[in-house]
Structure formats: C-alpha cells, structure tokens
C-alpha cells in the first residue's frame, strides 16, 4: 500500500520566497543556546504573507521555529564575553611554517594575481538562489582585523568595482534577510606587493574563508549551509587547506571538530579575533553549494562531480562510524532489524509514537526511540547502528547522513501539500545517498489541525495558497501541527520497510 502526494509539477514554495529555516529540534544540537543564530534587527517593514502590522520580528516571538525566532535577539560570539573566554577548540595542528614578517606571497610574488567569481546564483527549477563565491590565486594576503583580503593584481582585472574592490558576505545561503548579519569581507586589488600589508604568517596551502552565522545551531542548516558546501569546496585538497571562520562560534567549532579535522589538517583561524596578516598562494572566499542535501555535477560549483554518497562516506569516516550496510534479514538466526524513531519535543510530534513503536516491534523490529542531541558523534553512532530511520518531517531527518548505505528512511509527511519540501529536503537526498526511501502522507483525520481549524479553512480547502503567502504562513499554521497516524494505514509502510531490507 502506497499513498502519494497530490500531483505537483512545480515547487510548492514560491520562487521569490526566502528559504524557510528548518526548525531547531531540541535534538537539533544546541537549540537552547543564546548565540546560535545571528540575524539583523527587523526594520518594521511589511513582510509578505503577514498582516500589515506584523513584522518578521513579531512573528519570531510567537514561533517555535528557531531558524528565525530566538535568533532575532541573539548576540554573536564576538560580543559574548563568556564565549570569548572559552578555550579555542583544537581541531588539528598549527602550520609548521615560521611565523615571521614577509613581503611576498607563497606563489608568484611578482606575478599577476587572479580572481574568478561564480555569481550565477539562479538555479532553474529550484527556488533558492546561491551566494557569490570567489576563487583567488597568486599573492594573497588576508588581514582578518581589516576584514580584507588583498590580491596583488597589477592589471586590476578580475571583476573588481571602480575602486578596485569586491565585497562578499561568505555565508553559504543567499538569504537577503540573513546576509546583513554576516561579516562582510572585502577583496581588494592592489597594484604591487609593496602596496599590500606585510605578511606575519606564511602559509603554503590554500585558504577558505567562510561564515557560520545565519541559521547555524540547527542540524539541517549546519549541514546545508556549512558542512556540505565546505565539503564541496575543500575536500579535494585532502586536508591541505587552512580554514578561516567568520562569525566564529567556539561551541560550533567544538561541536563539529571531527568533521573540520577531516577536511583540514590545521586549526581553524578565528577571523573575528586574529590580528595577523596571513599569506596564501590561493584561496576561496565563500563556499560553493548546490541544492541543500542534493549534489549534482556542475562545471563551476561541482566540477569533480561529488555526490551525496561521497558526503555520506565523508561523515562516516570523520566520525569513525563502522557500519556501511544495514542488516540483511535472515542472515543471522533470530536477528531483528533495528529501527530508530526520532522523537520531537516541539511541533510536528508523533502523538501516538508509543503505538507506532509497539506496531513496529510486533512486526519484528528492534525499536529505539530517541531525540537527537547536541553530542553529534554520539547520536551519529546511534543512527549508524540502525537499519531503518523513521521520523516526522523536520531537521531530525538530516541524520540520515549517518545511516549505512542501503539503510531505509521513512518520512511521515504532515498535512498541507508538503510534497515538494518533503522530496527536496529529505526524499531525494535519501535516494542520492543510496538509501531506500518511503514516505507516508498524513490525511485530514491524522493531523491536529482538524482540532484547531474548521474544514472550511484554507489549510484544508487550499493549502497551496498558504505556501504562496510565504514562510510565515507556513510556520504559523502548517508547521505547527502534530500528527497521529492511522495504524491501519501506516502498518503496511512498516512492512514495506522490512521488504526493502531484503532487496
């Protein structure tokens, strides 16, 4: 038995809408922090899809979607004395080059520097634009204190403005509301080495400058706006790359130390605190990205044709996750395949979770129920130990990246024409990681919305109209529901999960 979404030939999210921030679960990893999201103050201007008098800031105060809510009043780590005094996490090692003044870059000090930028942010068929990324080579001098990257570039060519500058906010999501809260980095063309500041540290490896502002402190966005783009940008360098992190958060760096160590052999540089001038032979300002958890071949942003299978192997390797395939039914006498059900403390709870777990147990699964936590390695190990991952649509499903190849993902899709979001955020990524995927669409009788709104309400009569109003309408209505699945309808999907383990 397979239910299916309403027919849809285009995204159910308007192409002009900013990316909806995936909610921070209590298991999103730090949703109770006060420094996880750095956003500009609301200006009081009208927000699409909201009543005239309602601003995004007011909406955030009423919402439990921490992609926006708490973040509007949060302060960055650079302004937080406690965070500033926190010891710097050790990711790998210091570069061994001697730290001494130097007037030349590591490569072609007297030659012509070069900058090329990928500014093609539009992706036909996907509504969210990508940020600009610039790749530099030659004599490159990075002054974090001045928030400036100097490129020795006598000709002045390479896409600079009339003043010889290129300004970027190196956060890997082009969100016009978020970007003003991201540190701006200026790339400055200089006519000669003498016109650039002298080096205090010479590096022989390329640099990558990127931000962890925005929606970080949410596991979906930690992956889609930082780790997947960082993998796409730097993994081919095999660890020989220096990371410089703007909007630096010590707790964030500590949380993802195993992944950062896998990508770079050197301790990351806090771009917000460093007083030196770091010289490099090459570098990236910003990160390349594709479609959230979807990677496709592209001559500019993915010339090495990385796939989500590659990313899945990368995270499993970084966290030393042992299982690369799920259990095979019948392989061991008495073996029961393991199902992990991710619970939620906020919205979109599975109300009858205990009944679902009991039904799965009766069908032969060894069931564990857990809420994702801030300890990424520990929860990743728990996911990797499972054969089947089951969850209601939300950031917790991002944990599918830790499943063994050919594991099974079951997504419960809430009411409200969520087919495009379900497929593009989690369904297609699961298939791209060579996971076996099932999705169950909640009916009108299975959503808590039926107890809050009459059947004549737009959420039942025309839910697509709410999508057209923008993220605020979705966050305030559709994303606030809980679900209680009809076990008569749902039990066949549990059986399908068992069947897929035998394929």
Automatic annotation (TrEMBL):
Q: Please verify whether the record's keywords include Lipid biosynthesis.
A: no
Q: Which domain of life is it from?
A: Eukaryota
| Statement: the UniProt record of this protein carries the keyword Cytoplasm | no
Q: By what name is this protein known?
A: Glycosyltransferase 61 catalytic domain-containing protein
Q: Write down a Pfam family by its short name.
A: Glyco_transf_61
Q: Which UniProt keywords apply?
A: Glycoprotein, Glycosyltransferase, Transferase
Residue span(s) of domain Glycosyltransferase 61 catalytic: 219-410
Localization of this protein: Golgi apparatus membrane
Which Gene Ontology terms cover its molecular function? pentosyltransferase activity
Main subcellular location of this protein, as a coarse class:
Golgi
Question: Bias category Low complexity: which stretches?
Answer: 104-113
Pathway(s) the chain acts in: Glycan metabolism
* Example of a GO cellular component annotation carried by this entry: Golgi membrane
Q: Composition bias, kind Polar residues: at what positions? A: 1-11
**What's the protein's topology in the membrane?**
Single-pass type II membrane protein
Region annotated Disordered sits at: 1-118
- Locate the compositionally biased regions of type Basic and acidic residues: 91-100
């Amino acid at each position: 038995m397979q239910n299916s979404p309403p027919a849809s030939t285009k995204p159910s999210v308007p192409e002009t809408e900013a990316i909806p921030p995936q909610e921070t679960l209590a298991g999103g990893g730090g949703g109770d922090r006060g420094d996880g999201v750095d956003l500009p103050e609301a200006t009081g201007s009208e927000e699409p899809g909201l009543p005239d008098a309602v601003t995004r800031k007011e909406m955030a105060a009423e919402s439990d979607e921490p992609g926006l809510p708490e973040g509007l009043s949060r302060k960055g780590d650079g302004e937080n004395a406690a965070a500033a005094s926190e010891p710097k996490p050790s990711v790998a090692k210091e570069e061994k080059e001697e730290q001494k003044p130097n007037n030349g870059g590591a490569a072609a000090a007297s030659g012509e520097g070069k900058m090329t930028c990928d500014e093609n942010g539009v992706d036909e068929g996907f509504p969210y634009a990508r940020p600009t990324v610039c790749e530099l080579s030659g004599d490159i001098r990075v002054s974090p204190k001045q928030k400036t990257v100097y490129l020795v570039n006598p000709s002045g060519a390479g896409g600079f403005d009339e003043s010889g500058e290129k300004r970027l906010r190196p956060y890997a999501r082009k969100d016009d509301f978020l970007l003003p809260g991201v540190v701006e980095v200026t790339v400055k063309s200089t006519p000669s080495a003498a016109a650039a500041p002298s080096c205090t540290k010479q590096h022989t490896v390329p640099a990558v400058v990127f931000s962890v502002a925005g929606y970080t402190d949410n596991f979906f966005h930690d992956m889609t706006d930082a780790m997947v783009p960082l993998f796409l940008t730097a993994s081919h360098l095999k660890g020989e790359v220096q990371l410089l992190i703007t909007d630096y958060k010590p707790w964030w760096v500590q949380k993802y130390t195993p992944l950062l160590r896998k990508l770079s052999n050197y301790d990351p540089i806090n771009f917000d605190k460093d007083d030196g001038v770091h010289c490099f032979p090459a570098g990236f300002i910003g990160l390349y990205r594709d479609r959230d958890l979807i990677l496709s071949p592209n001559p500019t942003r993915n010339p090495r044709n990385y796939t989500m299978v590659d990313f899945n192997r990368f995270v499993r390797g970084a966290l030393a996750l042992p299982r690369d395939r799920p259990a095979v039914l019948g392989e061991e006498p008495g073996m029961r395949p393991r199902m992990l059900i991710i619970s939620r403390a906020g919205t979109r709870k599975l109300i009858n979770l205990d009944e679902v777990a009991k039904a799965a147990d009766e069908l032969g699964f060894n069931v564990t129920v857990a809420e994702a936590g801030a300890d990424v390695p520990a929860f990743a190990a728990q996911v990797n130990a499972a054969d089947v991952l089951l969850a209601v649509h939300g950031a917790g499903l991002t944990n599918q990246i830790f499943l063994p190849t050919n594991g099974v993902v079951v997504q419960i899709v809430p009411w409200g024409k969520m087919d495009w979001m379900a497929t593009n955020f989690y369904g297609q990524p699961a298939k791209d990681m060579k996971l076996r995927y099932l999705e169950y669409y909640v009916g009108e009788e299975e959503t808590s919305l039926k107890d809050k709104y009459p059947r004549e309400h737009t959420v039942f009569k025309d839910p697509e109209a709410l999508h057209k109003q923008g993220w605020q309408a979705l966050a305030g209505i559709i994303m606030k529901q809980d679900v209680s699945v009809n076990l008569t309808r749902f039990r066949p999907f549990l059986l399908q999960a068992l069947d897929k383990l035998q394929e």
